[in-house]
């Protein structure tokens, strides 16, 4: 009988050890999972394009970070500067001196600041419907880019000035909200 008790005693100690260790392992696992999710969320941000809410905020909306106030190392160029109603032009967002960026959101806007026209769908960018079909465009991945060239079509029934505005994201912490192009004339 004593032999049997001795054999059971280590087993009982192991059970006690498991009972004490299991909550610790669970807490550590939960902590690890939480930290991993936070890090992945911060690093990933919006790797497959700006969310629909960007239509209203026109900001990167990265929690805990404000847009940069410094002059951006990026420029937004619309070419040519004159286009007929229904005509197409090129909009280029590029880093000055090879500066890279990971994400962007661009709109053509009339003099009242309302989205106007439509962007062509392409493999390196995807459109968003803010006020109308395809009136805004964003990135499809978080790869470093030095330039993105897009096609924009003027509305067939519009005549007037248009500027393009961009949100440009270098990193989760570094982004600029109001990069403005040269003015173009639709006539």
From TrEMBL:
InterPro entries: Ferric-chelate_Red/DefProt (IPR051237), Reeler_dom (IPR002861), Reeler_sf (IPR042307). It holds the Pfam family Reeler. It comes from the Eukaryota. GO terms for cellular component: extracellular region; membrane. It comes from Nephila pilipes (Giant wood spider). Belongs to the insect defense protein family. It is found in: Secreted. The keyword Secreted applies. Residues 40-187 form the Reelin domain. One of its GO terms (biological process) is defense response to bacterium. Keywords: Antibiotic, Antimicrobial, Immunity, Innate immunity, Secreted, Signal. This is Defense protein l(2)34Fc. The lineage of its organism: Eukaryota, Metazoa, Ecdysozoa, Arthropoda, Chelicerata.
């Amino acid at each position: 009988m004593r032999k049997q008790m001795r054999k059971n005693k280590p087993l009982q100690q192991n059970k006690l050890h498991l009972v004490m260790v299991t909550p610790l392992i669970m807490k550590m696992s939960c902590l690890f999972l939480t930290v991993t999710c936070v890090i992945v969320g911060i690093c990933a941000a919006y790797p497959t394009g700006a969310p629909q809410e960007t239509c209203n905020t026109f900001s990167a909306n990265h929690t805990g970070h404000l847009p940069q106030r410094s002059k951006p190392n990026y420029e937004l160029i619309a070419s040519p500067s004159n286009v007929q109603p229904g005509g197409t032009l090129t909009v280029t967002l590029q880093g000055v001196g090879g500066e890279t960026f990971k994400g962007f959101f661009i709109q053509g806007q009339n003099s009242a600041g309302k989205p106007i026209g439509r962007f062509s769908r392409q493999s390196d960018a995807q459109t968003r419907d803010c006020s109308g079909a395809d009136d805004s465009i964003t990135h499809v991945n978080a790869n470093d880019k030095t330039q993105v060239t897009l096609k924009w079509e003027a509305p067939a029934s519009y005549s007037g000035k248009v500027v393009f505005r961009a949100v440009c994201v270098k990193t989760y912490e570094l982004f600029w909200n109001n990069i403005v192009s040269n003015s173009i004339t639709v006539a």
